[in-house]
Amino acid sequence: VEHCTQIPVHPRHPYVGDLVYTSFSGSHQDAIKKAFAARQEGEIWDMPYLPIDPKDLGRSYDAVIRVNSQSGKGGIAYLLETEYGLELPRRLQIEFSQVVQRVMDDAGTELTAADLYAIFEREYGIGDAAVSVVQPQMTELAGGVMKLSAEVVLGGWFGHVQGEGNGPIDAFVRALSARLGQEVRVLDYHEHAIGGGADARAVA
């Protein structure tokens, strides 16, 4: 139609506009994210702020949620989960949304899922060789106690750590606390798989 008439279709035009199924508002995004998570395959379409299933009109869900300065933690978490399989716990959603908001305040532009993932990697040192655990070895002792031994790279510091605890995480925290000479605490822990089958990866 645009090609024939040389008249652009308004982005919010019903059914066909580029942004007609797109939400930028934080509260709308949070409602859509929760509804998608609760919806079962084959159920009658009944979604907040999406009266029509975009796929029924040949559209995809890719642009349902986009992130700009109006967006909240729900939209950010939705994009990271759908595009990269990262399920952010609520406390991390709140913390990371503040990081993203500062970036958007400086840049003043919309952020894609790739942009968000790059910010996430940079903020939390994902894939950063400066933060890594090398060759961890676990040994189960009597009474279910776990003993951990590993080499740790933390910033410019490199050293051997060793500790015991009631599980791998507890053993590592105790080992790191003893090596650094200060208390290390785990405030929250969440783990899930990315993908399925034998090639599935875990993220924590």
β-strand amount: 15-25%
Q: Which structural class best describes the helix and strand composition? A: alpha+beta
N to C succession of SSEs: HHHHHEEEHEE
- In total, how many beta strands? 5
Low-confidence stretches: none
Largest sheet: 3 strands, antiparallel
Spatial extent as radius of gyration: 22 Å
**What's the architecture of the largest domain in CATH terms?**
Orthogonal Bundle
Q: What is the domain total for the residues?
A: 2
- Could you tell me the mean pLDDT? 81
Q: What is the count of DSSP helices, taking H or I runs of 4+ residues?
A: 6
**Head-to-tail CA distance between termini:** 48 Å
Overall CATH class of the largest domain = Mainly Alpha
Helical residue percent band: 25-40%
Shape: elongated
As for the CATH topology of the largest domain, it is Helix Hairpins
Order of strands in the sheet with most strands: 1-2-3
